């Protein structure tokens, strides 16, 4: 319990100055971590091979983890000290006011906080008395015990004693809260940050979120607001406030569409690293007792204990989660390999089928941006290909756009259906997912500084294109071009009805692709009045369902099969090349039907 | 072929393969996507990933030399490895896309012609050459190596006066599928 003297004398700006110091260390650790993640890995790939590369890579990962830990923990210390200083200001002020009042009334405040006062009465004999806080509540200062015969000073003294007591109590509560949080933030000497340490860091963050609730509240972070509102909020914060929110509430900050990509990346990587450490730590938990005597007879003599079965199930679940984590980590580790650009983790969630949004190259400053929306069965447990599709796209696009910067993004930001159902519920996934896509695209546009700053292409694969179609129907999709690959339908009858305008819609020409037919069965196409043609030959007319590969839909139908024949120049290569030309804005160069 | 019949036939046959196809991650799948490595039409050679990558870049270098524009700038993107759909746990391929730019249109045209002429002597069969199906009708060539499992695709882009949309010769050297050596983990391949 602090004394009132301590509360009076504490220099709060010493705490905030110390906080600044910790903040600088935290920021510095963050920059260093970026250098490790983006620079050093690249250098390894250039100079080391084989086992040397693996060992060096492992060392670099350890270094990255050390910096991550420093960034988080020092950031938490900064926030704890700032919170302490800020919250103590109020009771300190109250105390000082009470002390000033006592001085003006010529009362003496005793070391124990009680207040000595001279009698001020017409009827009582003169003397000094002591009022303590906690005395029977004075009705009003100076009006304690009857008019006239009252000691006018008694009430006043009691009031002052009460205010002193309150201030000290308030300070004590604040002090205990922050002391508890700070006590956690101690490191062993010679620390090599292990997975367990990062798990601790996550717990420390949670603890400080509780303790610093009044100082830095999650509620102050916008939730469910537009990208512009998010950006406005962020722009209104001081740099220190930004650091604090990002360190204390990394998941909330990482999800904010509209704020700079590097900020989201830092915050999401914090959550990702802590999460990864949690999975690894949990996987290391030893198995419980494996066998128990068979309770149901002698054969078999022993059976698996229920605890063991539970542990097994848990291990299976964790291994699945680890796969997703591994995929993302593998992308991080590949930065710089063959000039692969920096990765920005713009979204991450491990729950359920997971979510991940990964950009190759910073979209905020890109001349050309591509956003890929994957389709049915997308799942974080099997995510390598969804990432590499966009790294391949990055490489192909930059070839067509020399001197310009390119960013390609894998957007797994919606609940993708995990199986095909051919009834109406299939559309629900698009209905639910499209607002998130709209918001994300708005966020990109805001972070880029406006609609004209980057030429943006959305590439919807399979069911992903249905989400894109619905997004276009629901709102104003912030994109310049839409590519639909293997589309079962876009819930839109004609290309011209999509937000980008007819000339900016691209699909792949149908070959023996069954997806479009299946899509129509599920009702994922759109309806329009028109004449259906095949290679220009009409075969049907009326109010018909169309999908993007139909001629009637009116999109540019890009070639998928080459004019020449070779085993090594595959349909995939041709498809990638055409899509990349659209991403690069080189429309007249696309091979189309 | 009667378009109506085709549509009915597609729809009828589709249902059986529909569920299989729609649940794959393929860019779009055809009714032929039922085989594995057998579908390739050739037997993949076993080769270490980094060796394949190095070989691909060597070929890129040879192509660059055939074009003969040493003063031209080249884009920085490197050679990427990715798994082959036919057997993603064992098969991989390398793709190296790059372009030559910042030389005059005339030089680009000459460079492209030099490439076309030099390829056969270096063991490449030019499978197709001519204006392609784009609005710009760019000259495009596709060549396949007679000795190794590699293909080269090149396009000539000229006629742009927009400084942001550069004239260039765009090349992609793409390997066929290789089999990774026993025990190689192809997850997280870039």
UniProtKB/TrEMBL annotation, chain B:
Classification of source organism: Bacteria, Bacillati, Actinomycetota, Actinomycetes, Kitasatosporales
Keywords (A to Z) from UniProt: Signal
Protein's name in the database: Lipoprotein
Signal peptide bounds: 1-26
Organism for this UniProt entry: Streptomyces flavochromogenes
